[in-house]
Amino acid sequence: MSHPEEAAKFVANDERMHWHDKALWFVREKRDVSSKGIPEWEKLREYANNIKTHTMHKLDFYLEEFEKNATKKGIIVHWAKDAQEHNKIVHEILASHNVTKLVKSKSMLTEECHLNPYLESKGIEVIDTDLGERIVQLRKETPSHIVLPAIHLKKMDVSDTFHEHLGTEKGNDDPTYLTRAARASLREDFLTAQAGLTGVNFAISETGGIVVCTNEGNADMGASVPKLHIASMGIEKTIPRLKDLSVFTRLLARSATGQAITSYTSHYHGPVEGGEMHIVIVDNKRTPILADATYQKSLNCIRCGACMNTCPIYRRSGGHSYKYVIPGPIGSNLGAFRNPKEHKSLPFACTLCASCTNVCPVKIDLDSQLYAHRQDLAKKHLIDTKKAVAMKITSWVMDHPTLFNIGGKIMRKVIPMLPDSIIYSKANVWGKQRDIPKMPKNSFKELYKQRKDS
Ligand code: SF4
């Protein structure tokens, strides 16, 4: 199903849609206040952009340096060319340690690789330990946001889910009560799991260590209580030096939730005493992005979610409507690049307002990339026939100014006389949720001329 078809399901519940919109706008406003608290904010964004762009140009060097330094610290490094290889490596490590239960801290990469169902098919129980992730896992849903995975749910939904799966009191939707219930259940999982898996926010080449940023401390529990720690990272998570990290940590939490810093910024530079640490470095179709000058910058993403929080389409259509592991502007870019046929509607889920580009802490040109995708899709004949024909006609009319002016004049007179059955016919998809505005007497060009002459 296309994005508009999926979005229609979310939009059908008007109250929920407005609530979702407001909740995310609240986070966006917190981000604005927090970023304005740092006078050098724009400089930091520029640094981050430069560091990431430089790293991507020398990624082979930095990855090898990272592997060398991590190995020196006693970490076992693995390379996976795709999702299947990643899942196989993780399973082999777990199987060789007779692991039957794995606690996992939020990792979009493992979502991308569909690790949970793979391990479950091998008889290994996987528990997502981030609260939001745990809620969606219990509901057998996917995260609808990369930082706030359960933002599409209200507290009553969580109450019902916990009542069904954790045996909490029916109808009790007190957030403290529900959080305590989740914590008690997760504590049990941390103590009984034989292995922990975390994502990676930053992999530092110079030190061979990784950094994980969370607000709940769940990654720390998963990586420290069991003796076996596996970290899964995409190749793009690399940064050159330890001192580069401060640029990103100052940007990440402020962009994500408006916090000055995440509650936990944990460094892992080797296994726990008597334990084992593995890092799986995954490509999974990232190198073709790296090789493409137009889209390469999308690999600079630090997964803060700011582009989603600000996006007028995401806020009103919900993350699940994107049908790609990462929703919103960055997800639309990545999805359309990786599988243009399947995700051809995503670059059009955009008003090209550029709000995403303006908030992106690493200055990814998100709106320009979405615009470029539209052109690529047209060249590949992957856009809807009605849209392609309409665009051709529009382009032809706009290429002939006299015709455009005459057409405008006629339509301003004709449209008010047309019956609703024609104006709001199926051909006018815009009319589905909008009223056609009152036709002005004059065109913009005429008004401009009048004012200039007066
Ligand atoms: S594209 Fe930019 S704003 Fe969006 S998640 Fe990535 S870093 Fe954040």
Essential attributes:
454 residues; alpha/beta; Rossmann fold; Fumarate Reductase Iron-sulfur Protein, Chain B, domain 2; six-stranded parallel β-sheet; four-stranded mixed β-sheet; 51% helix; globular; binds iron/sulfur cluster
Written account of the structure:
With 454 residues, this protein is α/β, with parallel strands linked by helices. The chain has 3 domains: 38-284, NagB/RpiA/CoA transferase-like (Rossmann fold), CATH 3.40.50; 289-380, Fumarate Reductase Iron-sulfur Protein, Chain B, domain 2 (Orthogonal Bundle); 385-453, no CATH class. Helices cover 51% and strands 10% of the residues. It contains 22 helices and 10 strands. The protein has helices at 3-11, 14-36, 41-57, 59-72, 83-96, 108-112, 115-121, 131-138, 155-166, 175-192, 218-224, 245-256, 287-290, 306-310, 312-317, 328-338, 355-359, 366-379, 385-398, 401-414, 420-423, 444-453; strands at 76-80, 101-104, 125-128, 195-198, 202-204, 209-214, 228-234, 238-239, 264-268, 276-282. The chain has a 6-stranded parallel sheet, sandwiched between helices. A 4-stranded mixed sheet has the order 8-5-6-9. The longest helix is centred in the N-terminal third of the chain and has 23 residues, at 14-36. It is globular. The N and C termini lie far apart (53 Å). 39% of the residues are buried. Residues 255, 301-307, 330, 359-362, 364, 366 line the site of iron/sulfur cluster. Iron/sulfur cluster binds at residues 255, 301-307, 330, 359-362, 364, 366.
